[in-house]
Specification:
Helices cover 36% and strands 15% of the residues. The chain is of the alpha+beta class and 422 residues long. It has a six-stranded mixed sheet with strand order 1-2-11-12-14-13. It has a three-stranded antiparallel sheet with strand order 4-3-10, with no helix packed on it.
Length: 422
């Protein structure tokens, strides 16, 4: 069995040796006697059918697998990648590994072979959870999305998978995490630290950050404390006394308001807080973010989790992403799907850097030189023009209470903001 260093020397690139060598001996201790199972032709065909890979990609995967089966160094590297993503006890995903130049134009397919091997693992996981096979088939499409909507875009149409996206695939094999229509949902305790109250009669909703949260002058959050230097930043307040909650609230438009409001707990009830079971929403690439598609997905999620996880009642969907950056409402036309979707949600500020999420738009890890960024799509051009003005980019967060789904389409939280309590 060769070492990680020997294999990278054969590839002609040892720059990532430290990361490739991580857990190498542990992975090789589990190396199958007959080589990785995911290199077998029949297995590849079954996985391609299950994941929705097209015939062209299947043919290329079969061709690469034949080469890898005959080259133990490539087979060991593929196994190590698969082991690191799916089999290691603790997450230790591969990062920026070199793609084997010996595979030529097909070099991105080595890691895609390791990725599609998650198919039987997802099937087994879903069977243990008792969810229908149709949901499994829908969820398994994600690896094809990683290939077709991201890697192909970054590599001139060639198939493969980015290693930084492979790490995410581990969750599908371990968590209550499913694709239901346009969106994906992961049942887990809410990580965001905030408290949300609803008026008992009107249904109006108000969210508060915890006391002592630092905000920029205009009510946003930075990833690093030093980014607030030289700015009129401020700290939020939150207290409970005399049957009231009093604090600095978050506007549904996505920023904290530098004022205090007091809510009587006789009139307002707590409906969501950190640690409550919630649906973390994830948005696969692929377009078609119409309100109808989003509504259908949310309705399916509500009904699905109530049916299959009745012992974990959830009240809300939440997410943090560049997609919920309210600057998009300045950048895109009002008719854009992302803008319309944002206006249906309760947006909230989240800590972010000036480059958060731009990888998904430009396939470049920031910071990067704006003049070198692609301007192939309307979204890319609009974002670059916005950044050229010197404005700081940010990410954003959202939540949506499932009991409000009957109001989805009427911008319920934005309407509430017009009569915000004082």
């Amino acid at each position: 069995m060769k070492s990680a260093e020997e294999i990278l020397q054969e590839l002609g690139d040892t720059s990532q040796l430290a990361n490739v060598a991580l857990h190498w001996d542990e992975a090789m201790a589990e190396y199958p006697a007959g080589g990785p199972h995911f290199l077998a032709a029949d297995f590849i065909r079954r996985c391609c059918a299950a994941t929705g890979m097209d015939a062209g990609v299947e043919a290329e995967l079969l061709a690469v697998a034949a080469v890898v089966r005959a080259d133990e160094s490539l087979a060991q590297l593929a196994w190590h990648c698969h082991w690191r993503v799916f089999r290691a006890l603790a997450p230790c995903p591969p990062q920026q590994w070199p793609e084997p130049a010996c595979l030529g134009e097909r070099r991105g397919l080595l890691f895609l072979l390791a990725a599609i091997a998650y198919v039987p693992m997802v099937y087994d996981h879903h069977q243990r959870l008792g969810v229908p096979e149709a949901t499994t088939r829908e969820t398994l499409q994600q690896v094809a999305h990683f290939c077709n909507y991201n890697y192909r875009r970054g590599y001139g149409g060639r198939p493969g998978i980015y290693l930084n996206q492979m790490s995410w695939m581990r969750h599908y094999t371990r968590e209550p995490y499913f694709r239901l229509g346009r969106l994906e949902f992961w049942l887990e305790p809410m990580k965001r630290d905030m408290t949300v109250y609803r008026h008992r009669q009107t249904g109006q909703v108000v969210a508060f950050p915890p006391a002592g949260t630092r905000f920029s002058a205009d009510g946003y959050r930075y990833a690093r404390e030093e980014d607030y230097a030289g700015e009129d930043s401020w700290l939020s307040e939150l207290s409970f006394a005399n049957g009231c909650v009093c604090g600095t609230p978050i506007s549904p438009h996505g920023y904290a308001r530098r004022e205090k409001v007091a809510l009587s707990l006789a009139d307002w009830e707590l409906v969501l807080s950190k640690g409550d079971d919630s649906l973390s929403m994830h948005i696969p690439s692929g377009g078609n973010m119409s309100l109808d598609a989003c509504r259908d997905s949310l309705l399916r999620a509500r009904d699905f989790f109530r049916k299959y996880f009745p012992d974990r009642p959830v009240r809300a969907v939440n997410c943090a992403s560049w997609i919920f950056n309210n600057q998009l409402q300045e950048i895109l036309p009002a008719t854009a799907n992302l803008v319309q979707f944002q206006r249906e949600l309760y947006l909230c500020p989240v800590p972010s850097s000036a480059w958060d999420g731009l990888w998904f738009v430009f396939l470049k890890n920031g910071p990067f030189d704006l003049k070198d960024a692609p301007r192939d799509t309307d979204l890319q051009r609009r974002i670059l023009d916005f950044l050229a003005t010197g404005r700081r980019w940010r990410a954003g967060g959202m939540f949506f209470l499932l009991d409000d789904l009957d109001r989805f389409g009427s911008q319920p939280y934005c309407a509430d903001a017009e009569a915000f309590p004082t």
